[in-house]
Amino acid sequence: xxxxxxxxxxxxxxxxxxxxEQTGLIPKAGRKDSGYRDYSSADxxxxxxxxxxxxxxxxxxxxxxxxxxxxxxxxxSSDVKRIAQKHVDDLNERIEAMKQMAGTLQSLVDCCAGxxxxxxxxxxxxxxxxxxSGAPARATLRPGSKGRS
Amino acid sequence: xxxxxxxxxxxxxxxxxxxxEQTGLIPKAGRKDSGYRDYSSADxxxxxxxxxxxxxxxxxxxxxxxxxxxxxxxxxSSDVKRIAQKHVDDLNERIEAMKQMAGTLQSLVDCCAGxxxxxxxxxxxxxxxxxxSGAPARATLRPGSKGRS
DNA sequence: GCTTGACCTTCCCATCACTGGAAGGTCGAC
DNA sequence: GTCGACCTTCCAGTGATGGGAAGGTCAAGC
Lengths: 149, 149
Hints:
Chain A is mostly helical. Chain A has six helices and two strands.
């Protein structure tokens, strides 16, 4: 089948299929005489695998690892589990950081009158020098923020 | 002061300061005879504002809005509040999506023996056709939301 | 005065996972 | 044979940064 049909059947766009081929995530597709790529239902199966993994937030390089394990009949489930657990841990870490941000910001929003006057605790906080250092504080959201939903 | 000092004082890298200038987020810095950019403490103050907003996860375009309001003495706090609340809502939406992912994946991980055998419910689920449609399920986690940490 | 090293300048490239578009070839139906 | 839908490759852009090259400037020490 042509790439468009494979795209529809798998839920991965034609653009993406070509991109995945180019980057080596998937093997090069066979070609018809016309030069059109030709896909089997096994290919679609693989693409669907990829889409589902993306839907779970795996990065392309993680998916590369998962695909190799998927194809490897002598794989050890511990290898799969390790990749997945690592990803869950990453997700949870990011969730925590975002919760903190959201919490801090929500408390500022709650303190803001939101009327026609210019006074605003949100801007005041942004302007304020809690931390004059300019330390490389990226990510380590300020200690003492009220966050923590 | 030179850009390096302003960078240290504000916590925004010199690279980023130039980038923000280039994209118009901040006005063009004055120059010394040498051609070096020259910053005042007011500039550092502004850069610190930007860094704090980034730390709260605001995008550059949101910060552009906030900076304009910050400079606008006749601003209405409701405008600031709207931007911030919108951002909190975005954050919460992304948090929910990630929680869902993490939860789904964690339950799969929990079902995986993680031993030397090849059988693995994680791969099985990825392989499985819950949803043969190929529907555009690519939800709510917008690109670039990965981890600003 | 000269060298050295730290700093500055601009410019280009890479990231990550895509999306968009242009220019042109192929196919199937009418 | 013509039309529209599809396919091909290639090139560029996204957002917020980091990295590095090639070259100019400055201040200190000799």
